[in-house]
Structure to design on (272 residues):
C-alpha cells in the first residue's frame, strides 16, 4: 500500500469506526436505573464495540504511517472527508435523517478544517 | 422520538413556567459532554506531543524496539494517553445519546483546540488563514447545534 492509499483507508476506516460505535451503544442501551459503570462493563462485551476499537486502532496506525511519508498540511484537510462519509453511512446503515441544515453545517465545518490546515 | 429524549423534553417542560409550555428549553448536557471529550482528547494529544518533543531533544535510542520502549515509559506520554482515554469515554457516552451525523462534525473543535494549544505551548505561529478557519469551524459547530439538533437521537 502506498502512502495515499493508507491515508484514504485510514479516513474510510475511521468513518466506519464511528458507525460501529453507534451500533454498539444503540444495541446496549442504558436500562432505567442502571448504573453507568455497569453499562460501561456491558459495552465491553459487545462485538460492535470491539470492532470499533479495532478499526479505530488500525485507522490510527494507518494515519501515522501515511503522515510519516506525506506532508501533514496536505493530509490533514482530507480528514474532513470523514464528516461527509459518516453522514452518508449513518443515513444508509443507521437510518439517521441528515437534513439540509445538517449538511450546511458539515460543509462549513469541512471548509474551516481545510482553512486551519492551509498555510 | 425515543423514550429518553421524551423524558428530557418532559423535564424541560416541567421546569418551565406553567402556561409557557410551548417554549421548551432544550438541555445542553450532551453538547457539554462533547466539549469535555474534545478538551480531554486535545490535552492528551498536546501532552503526548510535548513528551515526544522532550524525548527527541534528549536523543532517541536507535532501533525500533528501544525507541518504542522509551515512548511507552515517558511520563508525559502515559499521562497523555490516560487523558485521551477519558476523552474517548466521554465521546462514547455522548454517542449513546445523539445521532452520529450530528455529533461527529462537532468533534472538529478538536482541531481548533489543538491549533490554539499548539501555539500557546510550543510557540507555533497561527497564520491569518488559520484564524479564519478557526472562526469558520466555530460557525459550523454553532450552526450544527442550533439547526441540526432536531430529531438527533
Amino acid at each position: 500500500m502506498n502512502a495515499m492509499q493508507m491515508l484514504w483507508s485510514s479516513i474510510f476506516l475511521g468513518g466506519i469506526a464511528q458507525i460501529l460505535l453507534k451500533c454498539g451503544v444503540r444495541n446496549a442501551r442504558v436500562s432505567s436505573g442502571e448504573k453507568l459503570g455497569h453499562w460501561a462493563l456491558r459495552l465491553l462485551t459487545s462485538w460492535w464495540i470491539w470492532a470499533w476499537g479495532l478499526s479505530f486502532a488500525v485507522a490510527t496506525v494507518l494515519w501515522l504511517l501515511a503522515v510519516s511519508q506525506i506532508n501533514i498540511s496536505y493530509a490533514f484537510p482530507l480528514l474532513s472527508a470523514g464528516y461527509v462519509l459518516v453522514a452518508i453511512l449513518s443515513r444508509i446503515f443507521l437510518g439517521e435523517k441528515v437534513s439540509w441544515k445538517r449538511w450546511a453545517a458539515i460543509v462549513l465545518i469541512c471548509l474551516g478544517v481545510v482553512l486551519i490546515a492551509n498555510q | 422520538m425515543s423514550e429518553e429524549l421524551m423524558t428530557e423534553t418532559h423535564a424541560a417542560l416541567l421546569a418551565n413556567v406553567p402556561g409557557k409550555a410551548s417554549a421548551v428549553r432544550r438541555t445542553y448536557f450532551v453538547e457539554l459532554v462533547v466539549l469535555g471529550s474534545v478538551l480531554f482528547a486535545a490535552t492528551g494529544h498536546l501532552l503526548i506531543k510535548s513528551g515526544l518533543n522532550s524525548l527527541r531533544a534528549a536523543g532517541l535510542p536507535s532501533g525500533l524496539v528501544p525507541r518504542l520502549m522509551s515512548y511507552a515509559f515517558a511520563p508525559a506520554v502515559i499521562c497523555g494517553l490516560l487523558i485521551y482515554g477519558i476523552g474517548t469515554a466521554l465521546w462514547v457516552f455522548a454517542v449513546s445519546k445523539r445521532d452520529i451525523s450530528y455529533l461527529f462534525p462537532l468533534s472538529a473543535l478538536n482541531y481548533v483546540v489543538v491549533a490554539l494549544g499548539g501555539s500557546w505551548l510550543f510557540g507555533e505561529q497561527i497564520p491569518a488563514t488559520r484564524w479564519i478557519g478557526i472562526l469558520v469551524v466555530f460557525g459550523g459547530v454553532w450552526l450544527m447545534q442550533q439547526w441540526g439538533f432536531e430529531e438527533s437521537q
